[in-house]
Amino acid sequence: MAAGQRVLVCGAGGFIGGHLVRRLKDEGFWVRGCDIKQHEFQGTAADEFLQGDLRDPEFVRTVVEGIDDVYQLAADMGGAGYIFTGEHDADVMHNSASINLNVLDIGHKAGVKRFFYSSSACIYPAYNQMDPDNPKCSEDSAYPAEPDSEYGWEKLFSERLYFAYMRNHGCYVRVARFHNIYGPLGTWRGGREKAPAAMCRKVSEADAGGTIEVWGDGKQTRSFLYIDECVEAVRRMMEGPFEGPLNVGSEEMISINGLAELVSDIAGKKIRIHNIPGPLGVRGRNSDNRLIREKLNWQPSQPLREGMEKTYAWVADQVAKATVA
Q: Which positions are annotated as active-site residues?
């Protein structure tokens, strides 16, 4: 199917987008990447990379020209330290909504045949995620809506936007709700990093017997999906029969203190945890993979420890290089 097909990855300068570009190239697609920035940790594998702002309709017209499929991953986003402080809410909602409105409408009018949209587990209602041991995140639990952040509200709006274009204009649409994707080549410092990378950085920088800080009481729970598994699910969704939305995540739930202990064990360091106040999000979140198993006959196979071992090795290398520099 890849022969002669031209695809666009929006957000190709980011973590998931960079990995997706490489996967699509390996499958034989002609790939155009676009982003407001170059990839921080690797050169692009895309046949063509256009740098610009997807909030600008003229730039969007340029990047969708001659494209068959669009993978829309571009967003104003980050980890808990960026999303849950409230300081960036207006930018997060305006920037991400503008990107989706532009890419979908201009792409559709330019003749793009198929759209993939990366939504988020942050769309799920906070009231279903109060118990860290028993969060409810089945796809049908999204309504009545009460996301825990403005980031989640924008994602939910954009899901509805894509499905409205599917109904009214016949667009081929696939929507995935990502659950905490992690792995090498992702942001690991600066405030936008997510928990796995942040934990790897903190442990790597700590001396044996030292202390690391963890936000909250550390009993809040999450699940984390390794990047290769995420990209596999994206490709299966794009070629599969079900529009979505579908959870793309792991069902291996762990507490945040447990994640810190796991990374400490991987590093071979005895580390003390100091729990401090900080932005948290919901008490518990875990992917519910019943629907993706039913619709695509897929579920992730890699244990969290295996993915974290790869991620820690990469982050530790970045920390070492930064220390020398």
A: 151
Structure tokens that stand for 224 in this block: 């984390």
Q: What pLDDT sits at residue 199?
A: 95
Please name the fold of domain 6-181+224-248. Rossmann fold (3.40.50)
In angstroms, how far is the first alpha carbon of the chain from the final one?
45
Task: For residue 184, say if its preceding peptide bond is cis, omega within 30 degrees of 0.
Answer: no
Domain ranges of the chain: 6-181+224-248, 184-223+252-285+302-324
Question: What span, in angstroms and rounded, lies between the C-alpha atoms of 290 and 249?
Answer: 11
pLDDT for position 59: 98
The per-residue pLDDT for 2 is 67
CATH architecture assignment, domain 184-223+252-285+302-324: Alpha-Beta Complex (3.90)
CA nearest 37: which of 65, 74, 69? 74
Band the pLDDT of 83: cuts 50, 70, 90.
Answer: confident
Q: Centre a 10 Å sphere on the Cβ of residue 249 and count the other Cβ atoms it contains.
A: 29
Nearest in space to 249 (alpha carbons), one of 221, 229, 265: 229
Q: For residue 314, which of 252, 248, 230, 226 has the smallest C-alpha distance?
A: 226
β 221-223/172-178 pair status: unpaired
For helices 89-109 and 150-169, the axis angle rounded to 10 degrees is 10
CB 257 within 8 A of CB 292: no
Bridge partners of 120? Answer: 178
Per-residue DSSP letters for 91-157? HHHHHHHHHHHHHHHHHHHTT--EEEEEEEGGGS-GGGS-STTS----GGG--S---SSHHHHHHHH
Residues 6+ apart with CB under 8 A from 290: 138
The model's pTM is: 0.94
- 35 touches 15 (CB < 8 A): no
H helices present in the chain, as ranges: 15-26, 57-64, 80-83, 89-109, 150-169, 195-205, 227-239, 256-267, 290-296, 304-324
